[in-house]
Amino acid sequence: MIPAFLAIGFFVILTIPFVGVKYKGILVYLAIVVNAGLTGYLALQALMGLPFETIFQGSAVTGAIAIRLDALSAWFILIINFIFITGGFYGFFYMKAYQNQSKNLSLHGIAFVLLYSALISLTVIQNGMVFLIAWEIMALTAFISVIFEHEKMATIKAGFNYLLQSHVAIIFLMLGFMWAAYKTGSYDFQVLSNYTAGEKGAATVILFTTFFVGFALKAGFVPFHTWLPYAHPAAPAHISGIMSGVMIKIGIFGILRMMLVIKPDFAIIGYIILVVSVISGLYGVMLAIVQHNLKRLLAYHSIENIGIIGMGIGLGSIGLGTGNLVLATLGFAAALLHVWNHALFKSLLFFTAGNVYQATHTLNIEQLGGLIKKMPQTAFLFLIAAIAISGLPPFNGFISEFILYSGLYHWLLDARLLSLVAIIFAILGLVMIGGLAMLCFTKAFGVVFLGNARHTFKHEVHEVSFQQLIPLYLIAFFIVAIGFFPGFFLKLLIEPVSLLAGNNGVAGIFETNTMQTMQQISWAAWSFIALISVIFIVRKLVLRKQTVAVEPTWSCGYVKPTANMQYTASSFVRSYTKLFKPLLLSFKKEKKIQGTFPSDGFYESHPYDKLEKWFIDKPILAFKSFMSRFIFLQNGKLQIYILYGITFIILIICIPIVYELFFQVIGYFKQL
Amino acid sequence: MLSFVLILIASVFFTGIIVRTKSMASGRKGPGIMQPVKDVVRLFKKGAVYSRTTSFIFQIAPTIYFSSVVMAMMVVPFGQSRGFISFNGDFVFFAYVLALGKFFSIISALDTGSSFEGMGASREALYSLLAEPAFFILMGSFALLTGYTSFHEMFAALHLGSYISYAIAILATFVLVMIVMIENSRMPIDDPKTHLELTMIHEVMILDNSGFDLGLIMSAGFLKFALYGAIIANLFLGMVPYQYSIPLFFIIQGLLAVVIGLIESFIARFRMSHNPQFIFALTSVSLLIFFGVLLVLGKFV
Predict the structure, then answer these.
(1) Out of B66, B68, B113, whose CB is closest to A566?
(2) Within A464-512, where are the H helices?
(3) Residue A277: its pLDDT value, please?
(4) Running along chain A, 672 residues long, what does each successive block of 10 average in pLDDT?
(5) Distances in Å between the alpha carbon of A434 and those of A153, A337, A348, A581, B171?
(6) Mind telling me how many Å the CA of B57 is from chain A's nearest CA?
(7) Measuring CA to CA, how many Å separate A388 from each of A311, A341, A524, B96, B228?
(8) What's the rounded Cα separation, in Å, for the pair B52 and A144?
(9) Is the CB of B149 less than 8 angstroms away from the CB of A410?
(10) Partner A contacted by B288 (CB < 8 A)
(11) What is the pLDDT of residue A199?
(12) Residue of A nearest to B148 (CA)
């Protein structure tokens, strides 16, 4: 199967540049669908308890290359496949607007196929060296996919920001794998696992932390998140959806994989991950609220959701460390399910944001408004995703957050003082995250889709084609399905969770504990829908007999309201911004209206990231100012540059001589 | 199931008692106790006016808001009898299903494109989010105290024995009463009877609702009062047999209504910018309860 997988990718990459513009997309999509079928089959088998393993000869440099597809890989492969199938379909139509850029499209198609292959490979390769190569392919192809609109300065900047930061991640991963190879003499994960089994304490914790930082940079944990809010808005919509839905999850996958391989001191690691995650979750959503760019807002929400996933991992890890199997089960189950859920609703949100961008050519939410009348289907899909991401019943976001809550409250029952503080911190964090997400998405949905249009566009704004909406309906279907039949999807989780919890008792816990609850939740979801339908029908019947009039909005007596008088996104969150001011950062430009005959005035505010200022901008500024002391060396005269060269060569030659001399002098002193 | 019926009955007279208390406190005779319900019945019979700006969101939102409150009612138990739905962690469902209702009432306010309603929506979103932590920590304290995580089992196992547990119950009642005031947009947070739209939260969000929809929203408000009243009653009625607990339930509901009426009569509304501080203080009180529970259980080591 693996040769077939590679051959299909290879063949498509070679042929894309030579086929006509119209067929490039079809070719790419076919390759992805066929490969998804191949890997999906293996993944499903692994989820049923039949893992797949094969070992390639490899070369002298890499050693034997082990390919192991276990339940954890399978879970992530299914996500990658699903999002690439829907995202590819969506992207095929999204890219129709760029048909005149044939070469650019070829490159994009090649990058897309390579990105898919790299992501799938990352989940199964268990050889450090090859893993890094696949990681690099992923980083580079994602970079190329992001900078599709490379004629825009902001896009290129965002692309390089991403490229740089993903290479910082690679440095950490390299360090980890080098240390492992140095200690064990092999790149194989299995060998490393055997080695660390005998090694307890600081070494494993530090090794794990190194990997954690590397993978956290990819996943977007705070404070390693700063590339996300630039890269996501710059990319085309399907790439944003894939990056946020799948690519950052590879970071999560890496963390989980390393947990399995290294088996560090789980309790300590768990607490670290829990704290980092709660902070990530809160910080992500707090900054999301103040954003004006729709895709940037969604990017910050990815950070929030990574935080929620991380909380699950942290709980699971603590459960393992303290021997609390129920806690471990609930934590890992919540994390893995939320990975799926986030991939679903976040890609749906990015795709609908792409629809908005295609229709209006702007993502600035202050210029949008009233789109629900022009794009009712997009609005409806966005609404479903918005409810799901806010963690509200009856959709999928609620299920994973509920499992997380059950984990937290279960832990509460046999906790001591230190863990109680952690629990209260986590519960407070999760509650606030939920509430703030609701504030954020009522704002996003309300301002973009409801009310009146705030800006008149020169072009006509209309709904995208129905074919482009098909994959979005498919995603929405799964969002609803997980909400209404959680039990069915939890059954699929038994294998991966058993793997992570290292115990076969997971199935029993699911049976006695979670399944019954899920049954009740499913029942509640159905009765909720039934109740709504009944009341709505009654309302319809009652109103049919009455007179129903359509009038302008009541504006408290004012007769000439305009669209500009509506509440804007900034005013909607103004009381929030005032309350959380110490934690936020924004740049303002203001000219007040003055005089008896009022002058023109304006007010502008640009949200910025406080952590980015302190962790990225300030150090770079310090570094720059230090380097600027040597700027006199660069004076543009060729003769002087030649002189530098000669001086440098002479210095290099002199070093051994000086070294000798130095010891001679010391020798003389000793003789004294 | 018993709880569902009892809450329904209590909701009929709850708001009437509040109105009556307020009018008596201000030296008026006031309308009859059934007047608010009669108003709603009249609304159900009326036609409706919809704004030109609104979309289907505005049409379905009141229905979903009302349904969310009814769903929340189904979760709440009464003494030994459980609610329609009862499972471990059902209070999470309770809070989140109410949040769904709020989500829809907020976006339906934004759907009208009115700046007044936007203002109300903004405030509602912020204040309700700040009130949530207090509720979750309170429930966490009960879970810790009783060792269960569902409403029914928690309340059934809640014994009031020592002095500290009385203190906890009183503090919990205080927190719940305040949550009632926030959730129902009542006095120290919001003033439903003010003369100016700028100073309202909940009432200004429903400026454009009329007829059947307005009736649904109003009756959801009645139900919400009785709903929280039932939770407060449950704090005290865990083990009491039915012949005493059912009358006691109505006495507690009536008492709560009188207290709310008195609070409304004698406390002025806070400045909007002071509301968050007040709500944060509530979270601190609930943390106090949590530490009180730790004391009771001797886990402070």
Answers:
(1) B113
(2) 466-484, 486-501, 506-509
(3) 95
(4) 86 88 89 93 89 85 87 94 94 89 90 94 92 94 92 91 92 92 88 84 87 93 89 92 92 93 88 94 93 93 95 94 90 94 95 93 90 93 95 92 92 83 92 94 94 88 91 95 91 88 79 84 93 94 88 81 85 88 85 86 86 90 92 86 93 91 91 84
(5) 36, 17, 19, 20, 25
(6) 9
(7) 18, 8, 16, 12, 26
(8) 46
(9) yes
(10) no
(11) 77
(12) A413
Amino acid at the residue A29: Y
Give me the mean pLDDT over the B157-169 stretch.
74
Model confidence at B161, pLDDT cuts 50, 70, 90, reads low
Inspect the interface and report whether the beta carbons of A405 and B55 lie closer than 8 Å: no
> How distant is the Cα of B4 from the closest Cα of chain A, in angstroms?
15
DSSP A235-274: S-HHHHHHIIIIIHHHHHHHHHHHHHHH---HHHHHHHHH
Among partner residues A441, A516, A579, which is closest to B87 by beta-carbon distance?
A516
Shortest Cα distance from A499 to chain B (angstroms)?
25
Min Cα–Cα distance to chain A from B111, Å: 5
Give the count of domains, chain A: 1
CA atoms within 13 A on the CB side of A85: 17
Single-letter amino acid code for the residue at A328: A
β-sheet bridge partners, residue A585: A608
Which B residues in the span 176-205 are in contact with A, Cβ-Cβ below 8 Å? 197
A655 part of a folded domain: yes
* Residue with the two structure tokens 């036609």: B47
Q: Which of B107, B105, B112, B252 is nearest to B169 (CA)?
A: B252
* B102·A438 Cβ contact <8 A: yes
Peptide bond into B241 cis (omega under 30): no
Which residue type, as a one-letter code, is found at position B247? P
Are the CB atoms for A359 and A461 separated by under 8 Å? yes
Do the Cβ atoms of A446 and B121 come within 8 Å?
A: yes
Domain that holds residue A650: 635-671
Q: Interior CA angle at A23 toward A19 and A25, to 5°?
A: 115
Residue A225 placed within a domain: no
The Cα–Cα gap between A321 and A269 comes to 9
B103 at A interface, C-beta within 8 A: yes
Residue found under tokens 């607490």? A271
pLDDT at B301: 58
ipTM summary value: 0.95
* Inter-chain touch B96–A393, beta carbons under 8 Å: yes
What pLDDT score was predicted for residue A478?
A: 95
pLDDT of residue A318: 93
For residues B256-279, one letter each, b for 16 or more C-beta atoms within 10 angstroms of the residue's C-beta and e for the rest, the string is: bbbebbbbbeeeebbebeebbebb
3-state secondary structure A298-323: HHHHHHHHHHHHHHHHHHHHHHHHHC
Q: Is A28 helix (H, G, I), strand (E, B) or coil?
A: helix
Measured CA to CA, the distance from residue A345 to residue A308 in angstroms comes to 14
Contact A392 B143 (CB under 8 A): no
Backbone angles phi, psi at A207, to 5 degrees: -60, -45
Minimum distance, in Å, between the CA of residue B292 and any CA atom of chain A: 13
- A167 is a domain residue: no
Q: Where are the alpha helices (DSSP H) in B34-55?
A: 35-44
Backbone CA torsion sign across A296, A298, A302, A307: positive
CB contacts < 8 A, A to B, total: 256
Residues of B in contact with A390 (CB under 8 A): 99, 103
Question: Considering chain B, what is the average pLDDT of its residues?
Answer: 88
Contact B50 A565 (CB under 8 A): no
* DSSP three-state, residue B140: helix
Residue A374: both structure tokens together: 């022009």
Residue A195: predicted pLDDT: 87
A378 belongs to a structural domain:
no
Q: What are phi and psi of A38, to 5 degrees?
A: -60, -55
